[in-house]
């Protein structure tokens, strides 16, 4: 059981919406993933008209909604976007995302801190997308963020975890949930994040843009479980040299 | 469904025996893994006396047995060992393992080729443990081996896949099943092997020596499924730069 | 020729002082490295008494001095430390270093920004130690820093470049010199940093704590040249498959 | 000083011929590299007519010649090729190269062993190109090969060292020179090979196909020295966490 603020989640996999070929595929992928958190870009929705087209076919009663502030380049824009989602009743939590680089879509640390602080003051349950800067992650936690979401690699890149070392430091120091966000490309990436001790992961492109998104969603669900169980079970240590898998001494004489 | 020679397998995970703390743990780990192939070192068994102590508590009717020739340093020893297992009725297939280096337990390519050739002539269903030498793997296949089992890294090391490049070449060129054997340490390693297109994996230490072997067996079962589904679904390509996970252009006007 | 602010440097290797076994070794290592920039922790010096013991045996006329603010945990402390060095006449440039994590010694992004801003106002030539956060590096440059010094990995760890991807992004976007600082452990690490296009590197532990610091200093000097020349020469692209190193078709008939 | 059989070499860098844009560039790159061993594919030369066009402009008196058997797919072909070079007087040593895979140009272990054995019997000074199979490398040494040349990665790929682990095992166990051959792409790769303890490296495409081959040759010369000195000097150990590069305790009081 994962708890973010006062929100209890049964799945450790959060899933994006809006990049699928069509709503049918999205609905089936969401179901296959077992997620109970759906993320979406507020900017993409015509909230004014009450349209929630991005969710077409999904029974929103079954999910926690995680609007994100994608498209914001400043704290001010991010805060305004979050409030829009709240006003539209589409907001259980909010994911702060303030982009600082158009090429890599990596976050702006200064504006991210500001936006998070402001939204915390306003009473939001705040999950903040950040780089894997170790000290920045701690500052977000100290500020009161309900979860910290370090990037594995640039959004949509599929490059996996570029710096497992930093991620591990972030996880070790954290008292709030760490959700690895952005850049994961395959089930092995998902399992690796969970084995490092992450509390959950967020995926969008890796599922939505896979050859078969529904099967990939199922794969990711299994990978998250596999990685989590592996973390809990405790893996063997890495040893530079071999130890016999089938020890042969002292048992049956060499004939 | 995986088929090796004439033997049909429902699981893509093969599991070693004999390194567990006790038979109860082994039995439960085997069950949790969902495997239908159990491997064991013939040398470790007192076959003369009909003892199958290594399998205590396991219902052998439910599994395919894969005796291995661990402890053999020459083709001759390996062949003799395989025949012992056959004579004892403990042999659905045989895993050829001829060690050429005491430190790394990496296989001897020359003796491995010889042993495989001889056992194929004798009518065995042969699965051969080998290094990740690309040409050697092809020679084993051309010779008639029913499966080729390249090492990810030294036996029991938990170092994972040291050379994914070679493994991928081996898998691409193969017409027979490729079972990644030795060195896998965690669920992410298992998933990675399967995503590369391996037909299965063999684990021993990674499960038997984990903190909680039964939970790790479950983790590995899920990881193998996750990796396989990921392979079948088709992952996104790796892109050096980001693509917006939540595209924002042209949808709702920036307010 | 490397230029930082108005300071011209002939070597792309900056070297730390104060971790050597004795002053003789330090002097010889400095000479072997060919550096013309010496860094030192202001905090370690008894500046009050005019002591420059850390430099014993070195002819300071020959070097540019780069005092760093190591030991500072806030912008205020860093600024005060920089001014101490300036007042003591030991300051051609200043390296801003504000630590935000005692375990990893990784920098505090917020205090680092503040300290850099303040020292720029005061007219210092500022080189700022930072994480490999891509946007943070750009902000430091935009603020006016004369060089940005992203960490390869934690100070003194010898882990090398944990995230070459981020480093490359930082280098690509930069208009000011990028000096890779912290964590480099071997000549190959140094060469890699330079091949990525870094303008220089800063070393301390990798030289001072090597088995033979003087020989390692020489090795690092060569590695920096090698990496720089390699960058300038333009390496071959990586190709997933082989191309014949000794092409044989169409030349001499196969006999 | 490197000694292979009875041949003494002053440089640890061997260089291929025949892939350069023209003879002038080749001559200058060879000079810049400082090599004293030139390799060439016998198959490419019109030895029948005494032509040594590949060497045009080079003063062959100054170099040791290392003909290779590139183009051979069997031991028989390799032996015949070696004898051709010998008959033409172009042979101080011979590099056995028997390709077993057209796609990767990785060597055939069985034919490689046979060819090496045969040429050793004939009295050649034999350097054998092999995969990074640890046991195979040892067998070649035990057979009497004067040097073993494991591939870093496929010929001409520039992928660098795919499996440093295996390479290190090969180097540790060896009593004869280990020359890392094939796949190195940049100065950092060259330095890494030397830091692992290799006795030398062989390059062709990485230099000949670089943007500026002459400058790259110079870079590689420096990288080989850097890596060797680094190996001899003894690098610092990798530490998972930081140690202060500029220790601050107990020296000057925090003000």
TrEMBL record, chains A, B, C, D:
Keywords: Cytoplasm, Schiff base, Thiamine biosynthesis, Transferase. GO terms for cellular component: cytoplasm. It catalyses: [ThiS sulfur-carrier protein]-C-terminal-Gly-aminoethanethioate + 2-iminoacetate + 1-deoxy-D-xylulose 5-phosphate = [ThiS sulfur-carrier protein]-C-terminal Gly-Gly + 2-[(2R,5Z)-2-carboxy-4-methylthiazol-5(2H)-ylidene]ethyl phosphate + 2 H2O + H(+). SUPFAM superfamilies: ThiG-like. CDD domains: ThiG (cd04728). The active site is at 95 (schiff-base intermediate with dxp). GO terms for molecular function: thiazole synthase activity. Residues 3-247 form the Thiazole synthase ThiG domain. Pathway: Cofactor biosynthesis; thiamine diphosphate biosynthesis. It is found in: Cytoplasm. Its main location: cytoplasm. Homotetramer. Forms heterodimers with either ThiH or ThiS. This is Thiazole synthase. It comes from Alkalicoccus saliphilus. The gene is thiG.
């Amino acid at each position: 059981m994962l708890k973010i603020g006062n929100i209890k989640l049964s799945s450790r996999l959060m899933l994006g919406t809006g990049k699928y070929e069509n709503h049918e595929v999205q609905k089936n992928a969401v179901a296959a993933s077992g997620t109970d958190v759906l993320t979406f870009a507020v900017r993409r929705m015509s909230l004014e008209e009450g349209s929630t087209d991005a969710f077409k076919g999904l029974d929103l009663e079954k999910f926690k909604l995680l609007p994100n502030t994608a498209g914001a380049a400043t704290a001010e824009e991010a805060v305004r976007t979050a409030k829009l989602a709240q006003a539209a009743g589409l907001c259980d939590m909010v994911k702060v995302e303030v982009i600082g680089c158009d090429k890599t879509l990596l976050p702006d640390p200064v504006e991210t801190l500001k936006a998070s602080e402001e939204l915390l003051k306003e009473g939001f349950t705040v999950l903040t997308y950040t780089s894997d800067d170790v000290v920045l992650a701690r500052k977000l936690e100290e500020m009161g963020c309900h979860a910290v979401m370090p990037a594995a690699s640039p959004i949509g890149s599929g490059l996996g975890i570029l710096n497992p070392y930093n991620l591990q430091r972030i996880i070790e120091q954290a008292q709030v949930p760490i959700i690895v966000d952005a850049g994961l490309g395959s089930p092995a990436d998902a399992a690796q994040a969970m084995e490092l001790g992450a509390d959950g992961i967020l995926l969008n492109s890796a599922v939505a843009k896979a050859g078969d998104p529904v099967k990939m969603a199922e794969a990711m669900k299994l990978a998250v479980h596999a990685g989590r169980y592996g973390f809990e079970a405790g893996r063997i240590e890495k040893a530079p040299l071999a130890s016999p898998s089938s020890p042969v001494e002292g048992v049956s004489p060499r004939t």
